[in-house]
Structure formats: C-alpha cells, structure tokens
C-alpha cells in the first residue's frame, strides 16, 4: 500500500514498488532513477560482509550481553511484569515513569522528567559518560485503551526494562573500560495517541540532538527487520481536527440560528464528493467527536477528527488541501465558521540496512523464533518519521508473542515465557548493536554513509514527485 | 406555529387559526366546522357568569386560602429556597423528593416513592380522605442542565412547595369540615428530559386513574391563561433515536468494513432531501450522539437523536414516516443496519375555559403582576398531552420572574421577592380552584361538559384531517 | 403565502397579512404601521365615490366603448382566433407580431419592431396624438410550450386584439374630438419565459417612459380585481443559472479531472443543508439542465436553473445569497469553477384601488360572469413588478374561460363564446378606463395621489424590513 | 488497472499481476495457482516453435496473401477512403453497410442484412464454401460522434475493406483448391455505443455459432499483440440506467409533489457514501441525462446513466449491487420510484498466444512499424468479452496512424500512406493466419488446446475469487 522504496533480497519487488502511487511515465521514471541509485549505494556498502565480520566471535561483546541478560533475569523482567499489570494510557504514565527513572537514578543516571511540555517524557544521561559516539535508547510505556480499561496489548510495558538493561550494561562497560561513548535513555510517552505527537515534539525541542544512533525495541509476533530505504508501515498521515461553530436557536425558529451539525456533515459529504478526483491510494477517514447537544436546540458547536493518508507526503499535501477545502466549503455553504487544526503528522522514516541486517543476525544468534526470511517494508525506527530522518537507528523486533499486536492475547503473553524470552533477546540484540557501534569506527562510517545516501535519495524522489503531481486545469465556465 | 383551535376573546384569531397547517379548501372546511361547534359549546357554558359567581365573596374559601399562605410564609418558601439551592437534574432528584415526601408524611399523607419504574416519582394520598371528587396536584422538581452544573432556571424548585401548600390546606379543610373529597399529590420527575416521558409512563401505569381534576403550577414572566380548545405550546412531537451498526475495519482497508458514520450522516442528508416535500410547518432537527470512536477505525456504531414536530399529530405521522424512511434508506445505501426507537411523544392537550378563566380571575384577585389580557394558545395542563386528554385540569402561571424561562436570571429570581410573591399567588389560586371544584357541584358539571365536548371535537378534527392529508401519487418510471 | 399588504373589504384580513413573513415583534410593528397609514390613504381618496361618479351615465364614453365592440366583432375576434390557432412560443412570435403591427399600421400607428434587443417586441404610437395624458396599452402574444407543441392555454392570443380594439377606438376619439392625449401600444414578447425578462428589459431601455397610465388584459376563469397595495401573485422571484466547469478525464483515471457533475449536485445538497436555516416561507427549486455527456468521461460542464422565491424582496436577498454561497461552496469543495448568472427577477408590483375598483365596476356593467366579490391579493398590472412600481396602471380580468390558466381547456375556450365574450368585455372595460382617465383630470389626480402614497409606503415597509431581518451572530470556533 | 492474468516474455510481470485486485492472502493464492497452471499450459504448447514453423517459406500462402494485397490496392483502399469520408455513427451505418455488402455479393457471398434486431448488422457467407474449418471475419464501420459531426477517428472505416480483402482472397483459394473450409463475414455495428451491445446481441442470437476461429483488425499507433490469458483493456463494465419518477407540483406547494431530481441526486450521494466501502480499483461514474424540466415545477422524471467497472466480474457484481442499492435507497428516502435497467456489459475476453504470436510474427514480416516488443495486456479479439470466451480468435493491430485512437489526427491518417500501409499489412496478416489455420490441422489443435485450457483456468480463477470476496458481517444495532 506504501510507495515504499526498498532494496534487498526481494529483487522481484522492484517492479511492484512503483505499482501504486506512480501512474504516469514521469512518475515511474522518477522512482526508477532513485531505485537504481539506491541499488548502487547498497552494493557499495557490502552489508553482508560487515554483518558477517561483526557477528563473529567477540569476548568483550559477549560479556556486556551477558550482563544485560543478568539484569533482565534478576530485576527487569520483574519490572516489566509490574508495569504490565499496572497499565497507564498515554500521557498519564506517572507510575511507570517513576519505576523506570528510579531505576536509572539508582544506576547512576541523571534524570530530567518533563520534556517538551510533556510531563511523562524524560531524558536520562549516564553520569560517567565520555563524549562521542552518543548512543540513544528510546523507551515507551503507554498502555492501550480497552473497553474495560487500559491494558498492555502492545507490550510497551517491556520496552522500558529492555532499554534499561541495554543502557545500564553499555554504560557500565564504557565507564569501566574508558571506551569513549555516552548513553542516553529517552522516555517517550503516548505512542498510541496524538495529539500531541510526543517524539516529534521532543525532537522539535532538540531532545535528541547530538545522538549518533538511536535504538528501540518493539513487541512482535514475528522476528523481522525492515528493508533499507524510506517508508512507513501505514502511509504518511496528517491528523486534522475541524471544529465548526454556528449560532444556537430554538428548533421552532431554527432560521434564527446557523446549524454547526450541517457544517460538519457537509465536511464529510464534500470529501465523498471528491473521492473520485483523488488518487485511489488515498485513505481519508474521520469521526464526529461532537455532534451537537440536544435535538431541540440548533447545534452551535460540532467537531470532527480525521486521519488523511497517502503513500507519499508530496501528493498527501494535495489530499489534505482537498479536505481543508471541504471544510471551508461546508462552512461557507452552511453559514457557519470552521477552525482547522493540523495537530499531528506521521511521515516516511529512513532505515539503514547496515543496522537492520545486523539486528537480524543478532536476533537469530540469540535464539529468536518465527523468523521471517524476507525483509519487510522499509520504515524508520520510530513511528513519526521525524527522528529517523535526522538520526540513524534501528527498531528491534524479536518474537515476543503468539498473537497479533493490540490484542488481549498479546497482553497475556507479557507474563509468559514467550514474552520474557523475546524481551531478553531484544535487550541482548540492542546491547550487541550498541557495542559494535561504539567499538567499531568503520561500522559507524558505513552507517553514516548509508544514512546520508538514503536521505539524499529521499529528497531526490520527493523533488521528482513534486514535478509530477500537477493539478488539472479547470477552464472558466461558459 | 400550532394548528391550535381556540375560542375566546380573540375573535380575530379565528381566521388565523387555520392559517398554518391548512392549505386546501378541504382542510379549511374541516377546521371551520370544528371552530363553529366549539364556539357553540363555549356559548352554552357561560364561563364569564360562572367565574363571576365563584370569585365572589366566600369566607370558607378565604380561610383555606389564608391557611395556604400561612404554610408558604412559614415553611414552604423556605423549602423552595432550599430545593432551588440544591438543584438535581431529571431522574436523579432524590434529595428533593425526600424533602417533599417527608413534609407530606408529616402532614398525614401516605407516600409511595417509585412509580412506573421511575425511582423519583411518587404518589401521596391524604390519609383522611373521603371519596370523590378526587383532587390531583402535580408537582415537579427537576433542574436544568447548565454548562456549569444543574440550576433551577425553570423554577421547578418551587412547584413542590406550591403544590404541598394547596394540598395540605385543602386536605385539612375537607377533613375538618367532613366535606367529601380526596387530595392526591403526584411527584413527576424529569420534566425537562425524555426518555422516559415520566407523566406518560405514570399515566400508562394508571397512577392518575380516578382523578376528577388535576392542577399544577409553573413559573412564568407573565400572568396568563390558555384559551379553551386543544393544542400545545410547541407542536406535537415525536422523539426518535436512530442507531446504526456497521462492520469495523482498519482505515487502510476500509472496504472490509461498513461505515456506520456514513449511515447516520445520510440519515441527515435524506431528511434534507425531502424538506421541500414536507409541509413547511414541520420542524425536524437532530443531533449525532455517537459519531464514531477513532479516525483510524471504520466506525461500526453511531446514533442520532431527533425531535420531529408538526402542528397536528395526523400529518406528524407522515413526517415521522419520512424520517424513518430516511434512516432505512441510509442503512440500505451504506450496507449498515439501523434500529429505530420511538422513545417518546408530546401531543396536543385539552384545556377547559371554565378552569382557565377561573384561574385567571383568582390570580388577578390575589395580586398577580404583568397580566396578559388575551388568552394564550390552548394547551393542556401538562406538557405531554396524554394526561390532559383524559382528565380535566389547569396549569397556573402567575408572574414569578422578570426573566424568560430557562435562564440564569429566572433562577436568581427563585430567591427574590418576585419569585416568592408569584409562588404564593400560585398556591392561593390553586387552593381556590380546588375549593370551588370540591364545594360547587354545578361547577364540576360545567367543567365535565366542556371537557367532554372539546374531546369529541378534537376527535372530529383529527378525523377530518386524516381524510385531508393524502399522499401524492407517484407513477411508475418509464 | 405572500407578504402582501392590502386594504379593502377584507377587514379581518388585516391581522393575517403579517402572519407569514413576520415573526418578531419588530417585524409585526413594521407591517402594522404601514397598514395603518395605507388605511388612512385609502380613506382619504373615497374610491367608492369616485367609481360611482365615473360609471354613471356618459354618452361620450358609451360611443367609444361601442366602437371598441364593433372592432372586436368585425375584425379582432377573428384575429384572436387566428393567433390562437397559430401559436408561437416566447421570442419567436414573428407571425403574431406581423398580424398585430400590420393592423396598427393600417390604423394610423407608427410601428417600431425590435425594442431593447428583443426582435419580437414593438412600440406603436398613434400618428395623430396630441400630448399628455399618455395612455399605454400592453399586449402579449406568446404561447405555452406543450408536450405536443405550442398552444395558447393562457389565452395570450387574445390580448393583442383586445388591446388593439381599445387603442384604436381611443385614438380615433382623441383625434376626432381634439381631446389632449396620446395612445401607445407596447408589444411585449415571451411573458412565459425568462431570460430575458422582456418588460424589465424594455423598461430599462426607457420604452415606457412618459406613460401616465398603462392598461393590460389577461385571461381568467373568474372576474376579479386586486386589492390596493403592493404584492404579487407568487412571491418575489430571483431566476439564477449556475454553470460549473471542471476538467475532463477518462473514467479510469478520474483523478486527472475535476467533476463538474459533483459540483452541481453539491449545489443542491448545500441548499438542502440550509433549508432549516432559512425562513419557511422561502421556496427554492432548481433543475439540472446539463448533467454531463457520457459516463466514461468525467463531466467537465454542468448547469442548473433555479427560481428562488420569498414573500418580500428584502429577505429574498438573503435567501439568494444562501444559494449563491451554496454554489461557491460546491465549486470550492469539488475543485471546479462556477459562473453565477442572475438572469431575471420578479418583484412586488403596486396596485391602485382607484383603477382596480373602476375596472371591477365596468366589468360587471358590461356583463362579466363568475364575479368574485372580495378583492384578490394586491399585485401590479404586469408580472415583473418593475413597470408597475413606476407607472400607475391596471390589469383587466373578466372571465374568459371555464378552466384554470395554463390548460388545454382554456386553449379550447379561445374559440368559444365564453372566450369571445370575456375578451370583448376586457376591451370595453379597457376603453372605458382610458376614456375616464383622459377626460377626468380629477380622476388622474386621485390615481396619481394613490400611486405616490403607496409607493412611499412600500419604501417605508421595505426599510422597516431591512432593519428587522438581521443575520445570526456566529462566534469563532473554539 | 486490470486483474489480468498473463504469461509471456514479461516474467517480472507475474508478481504484479495480482497487485491490484488481490489484497488478502487467499486472493493471492487463488491467482498464484492459476498463473502457475497457465505457465505450464503455455510451456506445453511451444508457441515459439509453432510460429517459427508456420511463418517459414510457403508459396501457397504467399499467393493468397498477394491476392489480398492486390484487392486492397485496386479496390478496397478506395472503398476505405470512401467510407472514411462518409462517416456514419453507430446503428445508422446504412451507406457503409450497402458499400460492403454490395462488394460481398459481387464476390459470390450470400448476404443477410439485419441480424438480432440490429438493422445495420449483417452476415455474409461465401456461396462456394465446403464445411469446416469455419473461418469468421468480423468487420466494423461506425464512426465517432465529434463536436462537429461524425468522423472516423478510430479508423473503423478501414476494417470492412481489410476484412473483405482477406475473406475474398481466402474464399477464392479454398474454392479453387477444394480445400475444406468456409468463410463468413460478420458486419457488427455500433462498436462505440451501447445499448445495444451489438456483438453480445448477435452472439445471443447464435450468429457466430459454429465458427472455429474469428479474426478482426483494428487501428493502432503501435504494432502489438496481447499476452495469452484473459482480461480486457479497461476492466469489466456494467452499463446501467436509473430512471426516477416522482409526482409533479407547483414550486409554491412542493409538498404536494415528490421530487425526482432529489431522487437522482441522492443516487450519486449514496454512491459517494460507500466509495470507501468498495475496493479502490472500482470505477463508478455517471451522468444525469434528465435533470428536470423547469424550476417552477417539482421535477417528476429524471434519469442517470452509469458505467460501473471493476478488474474482475466477480467483485463487480458486488459493486453493481452497491449502486443498485444506492438507487433503491434514494427512491425510498425521497418518496420516488426508480427503474433499474442493466442495459449492457463488457467482460474479460480470452486470448490465445498461439494466434497472437503468429499475428505478431506476420505483421513484422509484412513490414509493420513501431513494433512493441512486449506483449500487451491479455484481451479478447472483441470488446465485449462474450464472443472471445466461446470462440478462439485474434485481433490484428499493425500501426496505421501516428496519433492515438479517437483523434482527428487518426482520422486524417485514414487517407495517408501510414493508414493505407497499416490496413494492407492487417489484411495480409489476417489472410496468412486464416491460411495457416485452414491448412495446418496441428495448428488448429494447438489453438483449440490453448483455448480450452485458458477457459478452464478462467473458470477456476473466478471460482476462487467467489470464495474470496466475502461481505463484512454487520451486527444488529444495540
């Protein structure tokens, strides 16, 4: 569904990459050029060679990884269980943050709670750090909203303990061995909710500045890694809220009012009117969050919340303009007023094969199950696409459940062996990657080269799309 | 706005009675016949003569009225202030009901709390009662929902104390003088809300059975009385709720779902489509009470709440059928399902001039202010029209505020002299009417005759309308 | 349905005059003031006295009326039959115009065919005229569009011969007796169609300038006259055409186009959306005159034609603004463009009781049948309201058919005795009025005084309405 | 855009075949099985070997082909020019049919004009025919509708002469050499229009029964052939007309009518409402062919014409049901009635590689220009898909213009060398294929085997799709 651009084992995929968003020859040519250059870039890196070398025997690495496992077994799986059984939804995760930051403080981290106006965000820096490379660990802790209360059906409960295990083990190693390098843990709240878009806001507040790599783990029912390239799981998204105001009146003399419910209804009608005038890959869906108070009073306030999606952000801008115009037209037609709030956005992220393939190799090495041979869609290590465009990194996904994400079954697996095993492998893999990144300068160079190359090609692709997506010429009515 | 049919001082009104709902000659003839017969009926009653005789000097009446005033001054205005400052919205009026029923119990009434599945409804019968005539007093006590909490902007807070003063004074009188007659107080909750429609439910549960007259008071910024006839303040109303179900799906594959929000939106669109095919006196307005949960999931449940109004209930049935068809069509078009719940209705009530003109004369006698010379629209003594069609009665409205109903200003007047004065006049007038009704058999006969006559004419008018409101013939498409 | 303001026998009507458009006290007061002043004006004129005096014995008048009858009997009923059996629809009435103007030329009229860019309009002035008063006769001749071709179901076929009879007889009289006065016949095409609005265009081109009175006849199934005042049969009307342009595309790639059919459809939807926000007396109806060419090409041109009506032109402006905004919003929402063409309008006309009551008296005197005792709604002597606001006049309607207007039955009556008799009475009445106007200076003064007075009151009423019809205040969305 | 299933040089295409219509794993599996079996079938036929053998030296074939060229040069290019300069639109092609059938009669064909109720369809059988194989030649002759009259912008003008040249040359050869075989020419009118769908109607009337092969030519700006498999250029199509009837009423009392324009408008609105509930490959587009007569009368008849398209006919049935329900719901909501007329359909056709590759080889051999190396989408030899599912055949497309189809430029090329050259190559290729088919039994067997195999796989694919396209379960509203 995504206009993802990827490279890797999936040679046959190349043709289909452009199947969805690209219709015209110009569009296809734009994509083709970028794909070719991307193939050249990957070839030049020899990722398989790098991975083979790094995953070879290394006693230093093995010791740090063993310390990670020890922390998990002794303390942090218990903490994961505890958070799993005390779920808190986004932006209210006070107890969870306290648990995590208390642990970090106890392990020699300076902690700042409350970042970028987010009270449950935090940044924790190891006190004994010594300069670059700057190693970042992102952890999450918000629960899902279930019909009978919050629950950890996406296993964010374990992300904190996993990240803490790797961060503490690596910090101890760097400090003990006087290896240059600093570890920072980032607590990012409310992954499941927007607004606010926590990571984007933290990034805008420069919280991640200076990081050379960022790692994160996430629950999964398969062990997999993304292909190198740029993309996202679920298209580029604009989150927009439309609020209409009218004038109240008694139902018996409704002409003395202006009906804000008609306003919001015709927002939906106007969108439906142009669905055929928008490329079929678009996904526009909304809900009415305020549909009026009482039937005997003309509604004077209503609101709707929309997610607007398209495979690329260039045409997405056109789609969102259609929706904004639908709202303005609805207000004009109904004599109401509308406020448009672009409250959040998700964008394509960038993924480096040098990091992804290494994570894949380590997960297999540490015993990960249900391994998916082919790389998945390219996507950044975090869901907003904003951080992964600026800083290289990798999200680690060893199997930690038998059930799909966002299920009560996955929540139950939090406390079972499949969960505990997967979380531990995530922590070990995270540690190994950070170890290699900190101790192998040539690996850092390769990651940086790939990241810079992909970022440049992403810009090139977007520039080509901008030229391509022209608007039809509407002549004057006669 | 109402197809009210009335008689009285407003001779010029006759022509305009039929101005709104009646368009065709047939319709006008139907109304004309009824108006003529109604004029004959009123002529035969000599209401002015009755009123003049009853309001003349009567020491017995004056004593009971004085006792009413004493109760108000000593205890019940204080209770009114207390209820006004402890507002409770419909169907939660526990504290208010306790205050009222405690007082009634203390004054020798048997009290049953919880009637017709309404926990805050009550029926209180005087223990010393002795047969017919059965005198009913309706009291209300629910507050309005304000943006900053409940408030008594419609002064229902005083209705209980007013009714209690009259009920206690009359009971004492009947008992003391061994005059035949029984007093019952009806506590009817949630006047401002439906569903449930409290009085209709209580009536269906036979709570009011056997009453010969029912009285009630209501706050007002003018001192007025309705014209004899049938009608309502605000048209006949059907309250209907439409609930749509669809099938959920992720936004990315919305074709695997069915969108219940589109269902409810097209309910509104379908209604708008036929507004020109419905007589312009109709008032159809709704709100969306459930507009979907989250923009990334195809909404699978939505709901709307409608008030459908028309001057008469005969054509109203056609209007409501239009709206029901709009809902069924919306479901058919969107592949969703709809449940239709006709949860409540208000209908034309019947008003007897013999009671209304007497109440008007007494209110003036006891010093009511801002007197409106012309009678207002005919309407029953309660807002549902169901009770007043079966039992004669009168609603008493002496000025009790300088502000319109449903305002914070009227709430403030609860505690001021204008409120206290108006409530006291209401109580005195209510007492005087009940006294006359209990002690003057010829007055009871006149009220009964008028009630029976109007009821018959109402049926005649509705039968005539049924013949008149035909549907257009739609030919087969070719 | 009209906010007509009238005076006359219908004293009871006064109250109901304001029943429809006026809701607020301010509105009612505005109307009440004007009605009172209008009553004073009419009182001051003593129209009944005037009529009694003028319709008394007058040999001179009788001779001219006899000449009119002679012309009808000998030649002009034959011409009416001929035009009735050669129907021509609006703006194509070449043959009819030739018949009429040939006759006028033969009777000493100078004829100019083609006025105000209307090829079948004409102005014919009697050659022997001598100054004021200037007597205008309006004639029409367009047929209706029937499903099986044009037909004279509104009997415009006879209007020309009727007007010619009166014009020729009066011209001969004025010339022969050297009475000051001039006769002009105005041929006005296409009464049944707009655009163009023939009389408005001719008036704008100054064709009617200088007339002191204008007379016209019209077919009817009753003999009637309008009440004095201002109004129209069928509300004030704006005729507006909306043309949408989009961008064509093949159906398979419709996103390369912009769909003009969606544009015009949402014009209708947007209007439906605000029907409850517009006073219920409004009537807005349209048709889609161009709905796209072929289903496999995205429609790039569509059009709709609307009649927008309201009882007064002040609020009508608000209604038309709603509809224009509906069109602009539809274009904005669909990415199309719209052209708005306000192609025509009908407005309230002014009617003088001094002329109407005289015409009524003469029609009865000359034997008119099916006489309607009460005056009808006030309305000008022509349907656009533009000429009758500037020049006094009267439309004459003796019964000329047993059938309603615009029927095949009325067409058949063209050739029957009922038609011939009615047309002849129209011609006689027209002659008698022109005779009285030309020969009684005091009557001219009365007509002028009434006309000026009504015109001033009309302005006053409109000014009051302008203050009254405020727009609701819509607050900023929060 | 099509769910075409193909085989051939385009190995990479295999993956993308299923990219559009197949979303679920079940769908993909269904397609994968069929593709694999199709590959096996094609492998087993050794089409390249067959083609190489047949296109080798053959003096007999060369003589017949030479005769074809002679007929073109001497007479039939002149006839093509004549038809090109006397364009006639679909179902009115009397002159063109006369030209073609006169020629056929003169060359010993029995001609029947008027087939399947189509006055300009014809069937012409060679008098000297002798049994199987039955060789069919389809010719077309309808012009396009241009803004300034009919024109041959799709070069159907030449199809008749091309087909006649091949038919006459082959008939002469079979007859002269007593080779078994019969030639029949089918004149099929109105290719550009539906309804009626000429070829489907002729097929239903058994006009094509008994044919062993059918050939046809078509203009093109490239020389190409379709891949083997099943598909169509432009999706499966349902053509449906919706006619609404209401009840007329005057605009002033529109509630006495039912508005058929609201009916047809809400057909469109209802379709727009479910666009997100239908798979995005669908294409639904309509026009309003009757949008009401006049704005002052409630429209009582309206109509719309739709093309409904989907890549496969299985899901198309669901899409068309959505549209039919949209119409029924629009009627229900607006109190109107609707008539639904499924007037025509286009379906996937079947294409045999054994015929397509041979045609491609001969076109190149005879000098065709602008050769497209890759086979195009699979599609039958005629546009309805009904005939090509029952009878093997091939459409021949040598370059005959520099311009795209349906252009004035392609019309101009009718008379130029590029047109004449292309038409001649079409005729030569058609002759060579018919010669090989008639004279090489093993080739007939191969074509038959491929046809039967593809047809069976087509059925298998459709059966698999039927299992796959389930409808969502909508629960009862609560």
List keywords for this structure.
six-stranded mixed sheet, 13 helices, homotetramer, 478 residues, four-stranded antiparallel sheet, alpha+beta
Can you give a write-up of this model?
The structure is a homotetramer of 478-residue chains. The N terminus of chain A is likely disordered. In chain A, strand 5 and strand 6 form a beta hairpin. Chain A has 478 residues and is α+β, with helices and mostly antiparallel strands. The radius of gyration of chain A is 24 Å and the shape is globular. The two termini of chain A are 41 Å apart. In chain A, strands 2-3-7-4-8-15 form a six-stranded mixed sheet, with helices on one face. A four-stranded antiparallel sheet of chain A has the order 11-12-10-13.
In short:
The structure is a homotetramer of 478-residue chains. Chain A is an alpha+beta fold and 478 residues long. The first copy, chain A, contains 13 helices and 15 strands.
How large is the count of helical segments of chain A? 13
By DSSP, the count of extended strands of chain A is: 15
Mean pLDDT metric of chain A: 92
Structural class category of chain A: alpha+beta
Q: In percent terms, what proportion of residues of chain A is strand? A: 15-25%
Oligomeric status of the shown chains?
Answer: homotetramer
Q: Residue ranges of chain A: pLDDT <50 for 5 or more in a row?
A: 1-20
N→C terminal distance of chain A: 41 Å
Which helices and strands appear, and what pairs or packs with what?
The structure is a homotetramer of 478-residue chains.
Chain A: E1 5-6, H1 13-17, H2 25-45, H3 47-54, H4 59-84, H5 94-106, E2 109-115, E3 118-126, E4 134-139, E5 144-146, E6 149-151, H6 156-177, E7 182-187, H7 198-204, E8 213-217, E9 229-231, E10 236-245, H8 260-273, E11 283-290, E12 301-310, H9 313-334, E13 337-346, E14 349-351, H10 353-365, E15 393-396, H11 408-413, H12 417-439, H13 441-468
Parallel strand pairs in A: 4-7, 4-8, 8-15
Antiparallel strand pairs in A: 1-9, 2-3, 3-7, 5-6, 9-14, 10-12, 10-13, 11-12
Helix pairs in contact in A: 2-13, 3-10, 4-6, 4-12, 5-6, 6-12, 8-9, 10-12
